[in-house]
Amino acid sequence: MRVLGFIAMLLLALPALQPAWALNPDERLADPVLEQRARDLSKELRCLVCQNQSIDGSDAELARDLRVLVRERLTEGDTNAQVLDYVVARYGEWVLLKPRLGGHTLLLWVLPGLLLIAGASMGRSLFRSKADETVAAELSEDEKQALDRLRG
Amino acid sequence: MTNTLSLAETGHFALVLAFALSIACSIIPVVGWRRGDARLMQLASPVALAQFAMVAISFAALTQAYLVSDFSVLNVWQNSHTDKPLIYKITGVWGNHEGSMLLWILTLAIFAASVPLFGKHLPRDLKALVIAVQSWILLAFTAFILFTSNPFDRLQPAPPQGRDLNPLLQDLGLAIHPPLLYIGYVGFSMTFAFAVAALLIGRVDAAWARWVRPWTLAAWMFLTLGISMGSYWAYYELGWGGWWFWDPVENASLMPWLAGTALLHSAIVVEKRSALRIWTILLAIMTFSLSLLGTFLVRSGVLTSVHTFASDPGRGLVILGILIVFIAGSLALFVWRADSIQSKGLFAPISREGGLVLNNIFLSAVTGTVLLGTLYPLLYENFSGQKISVGPPFFNLTAVPLFLPLLVAMPLGPFLTWKRADAWAVSTRMFGVLLISAAIAMGIYLWRGGSLAPLGIMLGFWLLLGSLWEPLWRAKAGRAPLAETRRRLGNLPRAMWGGALGHAGMGITTIGIVATTAWSVEVIETMRPGDTIQVKHYALTYETVERVQGPNYIDDIVRFTATMENGRSFPLEPAKRFYPNRNEPTTEAAIHTLGFSQAYVSLGDVDVSGDGTATVRAYWRPWTTLIWYGTIVMFIGGFLSLMDRRLRIGIPKAPKRRSAPATMPEPAE
User: Does A128 lie at the interface with B, CB-CB under 8 angstroms?
Assistant: First the structure.
């Protein structure tokens, strides 16, 4: 049973193990501006059958389909946001490598700032509690030199 | 043949003995400490050594089974093959779940055994408890291996041939990356053990910090190098030149590194100024907890990636259990006992201590951000049943900006004096460095244009030059005669050089990252023999294509000639490699290093039997090797710090021995 499980897991993991060679020359758009937008968008979209890979960096068939789809939408005049909306409508929010700001991701997006504020206030309390007490300065540069001279 | 037959049993038996010893070593020293019984406490040392011997025998037995291709051992059959080159027979031992866990506990046993070996002057109670805590961890993971992941399971009847190792792992990287990473991960168990022991005893003093610092430093050094080598491995093996993917598994190694870096700095304050004790204890606990979390994320299979090998959820639950017991247990102990530890030492916001607090605030914020970003999809799916992704764009928008202020402040920190510093004086000392960095940025702007890239390069040079300026300034460079400066440079403590190099390495890495990100050139073309494409500074000509038989693979090699603008040329021979035993392909990129820059070529589809049409990805990656050179400089910096006199000598036992550090002009990091 364990051997079977091992093989099954390995097969499931296979797409992730495939090395990536991404975009093919024949998919490219002639317009360099549009192509650059397509590349940028591709880096924000997840390859649905791989793990943790953008469609820009995946050779999976489905990633290729998505790359072509993105280029089709762009050629038809969609804005970047419209392209993303289109892909999300079809495949769900999971496809976005940059999660959208909303109630469900609020914590995710505000936490970095909160952590910094919490850290800063903790740091401040560290100093404030000691504000009344005097803090003696270190020796000044001149005093140090004098000390060095005395030490030889 | 009897030798081979009993090999697996020897290894298994040794592991069971290690398990039994770890039970003894988990209990006896603690009982000895409670009763104040010196003999029971002293028992910890020999048992720690015996534990190590048993785990080492077990590991050696598995390695031998791989060397002789004993396919009656299930693990060997799953991951080896008689045709596999010798080096991969050895590294294949840890290229799978069971074996890598065995390497994990081997590393742990080495650390536990080094307490009696290097800790001769440790107070008796502290030594006994540190070894005991290490044994708790060893006990948990040895049990995990024995009961869920036994590498010595037999396979009857033994198949004539093995299934070979995952081709992506058949690389020198497997020999280097996991052992370095494990020394780092597991090395933090040492700091953890010291923290827990300190909480139990209720004593954290400068001597404690002086014991903890070298272990933290050693773990940090190896983790730095391990992450960096993993990054270079991904860079050349995955075939498109990316070097960091914000993959959850990468994040799993980055989090202990971030927390460990914070710990390294806060421990300085404990050692030198007796402040921040409670915080340092908490950081030590958190750092190792993040190492355990990393082990859980990678080993449990909640994340699927190249690193996960095979995984099953049952094992994941056991590791999760271990994780919860250790993290919750140590945090509970912390809450219960933190009051027994007094922090003292006053300091103004602008002071060396203040700078180190700032370092800790930002590093903790980055760590928390990476932690939440990594776990959020798992948590979200668990609670809402829906899936979302958190990928590179998120981390680039959050963790990176949080890290930038640290880089800006880094070279300033070492110039601050303890307790209270003069901000204006520090600024004037760094004025020259600022001017030079700005001039370099201006030159880059005039040469290549852009706005962010010159600023990024400026930041890199500010870091590099500012960090190196600190020891020079302390040696009065430019303010005293040359001979005087030279004498003073020689007298600076090594730890100061270590700190300066550690920071300078970060600057070198920063320059590499900025240059590679801003100025890499990528050309993707379909090519036939005879075609030439221009890739920034070199012209790439497709010469021939050839199929070559390797030891356990078939290579489709395309031979290119690259010619630089100055007429110099060199061959580039990337390949598509196929492993028939596993029925899996890999890409073998061709890389030629010129100075700090690299020409990089990898292949997509190759029509080797037809007209040789190949999809070619060619890159020019300017200054890209600086990314990894910087981490090597950081490693060397750590090594110099370890060699510092005061760490080698150990804790002064009596007041008369206080001479060594005290006469240094200013023993700063």
Answer: no
Q: Other CB atoms closer than 10 Å to residue B6's CB: what's the count? A: 12
Give the whole-angstrom CA distance, residue B289 versus residue B592.
40
B387 contact residues in A (CB cutoff 8 A): 92-94
Distance CA B296, CA B251 (A): 13
Q: What angle do CA A114, A119, A125 make, to 5 degrees?
A: 125
Is residue B548 within a helix (H) or strand (E), and if so which, with residue range?
strand B538-549
Q: At what angle do helices B277-300 and B172-201 cross, to 10 degrees?
A: 140
Question: Does the beta carbon of B574 lie under 8 angstroms from any beta carbon of chain A?
Answer: no
Give the tens place of pLDDT for each residue, B36-72: 888 898 899 999 999 999 999 999 999 999 999 989 8
A97 CB neighbours in chain B (<8 A) are 389-394
CB contact under 8 A, B310 and A6: yes
Closest of B501, B468, B496 to residue B645, by C-alpha: B496
Q: Which two tokens stand for residue B272?
A: 């030198």
Cβ atoms of B368 and A111 within 8 Å: the answer is yes
- Which element (helix H / strand E) includes B319? helix B313-337
Distance from CA of B204 to the nearest CA of A (A): 19
Nearest alpha carbon to residue B73 among B138, B162, B143: B162
CA–CA min distance A51, chain B (Å): 6
Q: What is the DSSP string of B472-508?
A: HHHTTTTTS-HHHHHHHHHHS-HHHHHHHHHHHHHHH
Separation CA A39–CA A44 (nearest Å): 9
Q: Do B346 and A133 touch (CB under 8 A)?
A: yes
Model ipTM?
0.79
Asked if A46 and B245 come within 8 Å (Cβ–Cβ), the reply is no
Size of interface A-B (CB pairs under 8 A): 172
Interface membership of A106 toward B (CB under 8 Å): no
How confident is the model over B558-580, as pLDDT tens digits? 999 999 999 899 999 999 999 88
Task: Please check whether residue A76 touches B, CB under 8 A.
Answer: no
Q: Rounded to the nearest 5°, which phi and psi values hold at B309?
A: 45, -120
Q: For residue B376, what are the contacts with CB-CB under 8 A and spacing of at least 6? A: A99, A105, A107, A108, B388, B390
Say whether residue B314 is in contact with chain A using an 8 A CB cutoff.
no
Instruction: Determine if residue B350 is left, alpha or beta; phi over 0 gives left, psi from -120 to 50 gives alpha, anything else beta.
Output: beta
B78 contacts A6? CB cut-off 8 A = yes
Condensed to tens digits (0 to 9), the pLDDT of residues B375-415 reads 898 888 888 888 888 989 999 999 999 999 999 999 998 88
Q: In this complex, do B389 and A108 lie within 8 Å of one another by their Cβ atoms?
A: no
- In the numeric block, the tokens 């945090």 are attached to B331
